[in-house]
Amino acid sequence: MKHFAKVIGTCALAATLCIAGVGCGEPEDPNAPVTIDFWYGYTGAVDTANKALVDEFNETVGKEKNITVVATPQPSVTDTANQLSTAIQGGTQPDVVALDTAYLYRFLEDGALESLDGFAEADKDTYDLDDFYEGFMRDAYYDGELYSVPFLKSTPVLYVNKDLLTQAGLTTDDLATWDGFFDACSTVHTETGMLGTISFTWMWLYNSIMLSYGTSVFNDEMTKTNIASDASKHIINNYLDLKEEGAASLIVSENHLTTIVGGFTQKKMCMFFYSTGGLTTIQSYAQKAGIELAVCPMPKGTQQATVSGGANLVVPVGNSNREKSAAWEFIKFMTSKENTIELSTATGYLPTRESATSDAVMTEFYSKNPAFKVAADQLPYVKGKTVPDGEASNSVLDALDAIWVSGADVDTTLADAAKKVEDLLK
């Protein structure tokens, strides 16, 4: 995405001219009325919650500081990233974006996001960055500077048809480890004739499993891949064994949710991994289908570990100082303790602040809704950074598709993929 270079170059030139006093007009009024645009790629409960908080901001902080926020939902998180690229190129970028962390690094590498260091430093006495969970902050920094703030965050969890599990003579305790999970899928198929699981080629889930075995898809420096490692082969071969015996269906990512939800609600499949951000929706599906739903943490390999995902709030380059300062005020509001509680209880996404998790409101909510607490209890085990979207990641997914879906040889396909990926990473 080198096309950002032209945008950044233009912005840098404008900044240089302003410093020199050329073509800048009168200095900006820091209190002038301003309207800012907030983009996010979520529908349903998240869209409703976001719009309610935008209205609250406009009636409180916004009214006090002459800031009006306009909520502009996009069709999906992918559409949000793609539309942001187009908007920056055309100079029509929004002011605040909830950007999925899988797409974050492409914008960071091209200098398309504003550093938030200066804002955070100025407000360090009233805005506590140390209160955010450490695992969520790994994606917030780039080259030692703050470029984003955790917003709608999630981990994968295991959704289980408890009725089928019981029919197979098992309990959720049998799902505590990956070996237990694989064995349980086989037992469910043997005892009930149904699928143990449906899974698709999903980088987020695959990296989570890799982390639980003490490794990851890529190293921290993004210079090497571990896809051909013994741990990777162990994971892949376990899934292939399930597929061969008819206990698992391994599918491509296209339309995966329709296939998975269909299998689950029709009671043809026992369990599947998905984001905790989908909890309220999946609970609704299960209730309508008459399924007793259990939500379980990610299984343990050689260690307890998982990934985090979801969106961070960012400020694109190219806007005025007044718009940027207004954007920061809005970011502070949306990521306060009170509002992370509001968003978490309304959507199933995780509270991003430790103080929110321990707050009496959240504690009471968890006592009444224990399924929501499962992902929160995983937060101390969040490891690694988000695997960025891009050609290297797509090559890994292509290899997994070739093996899981098309039956390609494991060793040869992984070795070839590892070489291709590392050439791309050079």
How would you summarize this macromolecular structure in one to three sentences?
The chain has 20 helices and twelve strands. The chain is an alpha/beta fold.
- Our estimate of the beta-strand percent is 5-15%
Output the structural class: alpha/beta
Output the number of helix runs.
20
Give the strand order of the largest sheet, numbering strands 1, 2, ... along the chain.
2-1-3-12-6
Approximate helicity band: 40-55%
Contiguous runs where pLDDT drops below 50 for at least 5 residues: 1-26
Counted beta strands: 12
* Global shape: globular
Distance between the termini: 17 Å
pLDDT averaged over residues: 91
Indicate the radius of gyration in whole angstroms.
23 Å
The largest sheet is: 5 strands, mixed
Description:
The chain has 426 residues and is α/β, with parallel strands linked by helices. Helix content is 50%, strand content 15%. Strand 4 and strand 5 form a beta hairpin. It is globular. The two termini are 17 Å apart. The N terminus is likely disordered.
Topology record:
Blueprint: H1 4-20, E1 34-40, H2 44-59, H3 61-65, E2 67-73, H4 77-90, E3 96-100, H5 101-109, H6 117-122, H7 134-137, E4 141-142, E5 145-146, E6 149-154, E7 156-161, H8 162-167, H9 178-192, E8 195-200, H10 203-212, H11 230-245, E9 248-251, H12 256-265, E10 269-275, H13 279-289, E11 293-296, E12 309-314, H14 321-334, H15 337-347, H16 354-357, H17 360-368, H18 370-377, H19 391-404, H20 410-425
Parallel strand pairs: 1-2, 1-3, 8-9, 8-10
Antiparallel strand pairs: 3-12, 4-5, 6-12, 7-10, 7-11
Helix pairs in contact: 2-15, 17-18, 19-20
